[in-house]
Write a structure and sequence with these properties.
Layout: E1 2-8, E2 13-19, E3 25-29, H1 35-44, E4 48-53, H2 59-62, H3 65-72, E5 75-79, H4 83-87, H5 89-95, E6 108-110, E7 115-118, E8 121-127, E9 136-140, E10 143-147, E11 150-151, E12 154-155, H6 165-176, E13 184-187, E14 193-194, H7 195-201
Parallel strand pairs: 3-4, 4-5, 5-6, 10-13
Antiparallel strand pairs: 1-2, 2-3, 7-8, 8-9, 9-10, 11-12, 13-14
Amino acid sequence: MLVKTLTLGFFSCNNYLVMCEDTNDAVLIDAGGDYEATMQEVRNSNANLKYIFHTHGHLDHISGDVELKAKAGVKVFIHKGDQFLVEKFKDQLMMFGLPDMEIPVIDEHVDDGQVLEVGKLKFKVIHTPGHSPGSVCYLVDDVLFSGDTLFRDSVGRTDLYGGSYEQIGESIKNKLFTLDESIKVYPGHGSPTSIGYEKENNPFFGKNTTL
């Protein structure tokens, strides 16, 4: 498995190009915009980009959908709980004073526990509501793509549409912190971390919680 990080868009969203090295089939975890930068990395990696797997429906994670879908022919996946955020895309843009854009089109909804195959890679969907109702993480081998649920030394904000501090706490403690501590975590913003590090040090829900 090859993982390339592209930090793009209005709010420096981490987009992850994940490729099966045996087949070159690839998926983009979130799409924060900048079609040319994304496709340049696809070309450099000799990847066959087939899908976008969204961790949630906030604008900084879905702003690249329309162009990638139109020009690269990718299929777009998101949890059904965040379909309403996609439909509120223009409202989200207005909230942050950003230029108008076309509303993305979702091809399929993912569900908790579902396994999505990309080449020989198998991505398990873990529903982690809290940052948004339809937030999910994707677990593949010993890597977790956590979106805006879990960051290094932090967690996602819960003051946007449908957010819940209680829910994000339950998601992190009962779903993510039960995973193997060696699992590497690639978040939607900021630097990578690990389950073990966050269980011990996360100031919100780790063992040494201070907040």
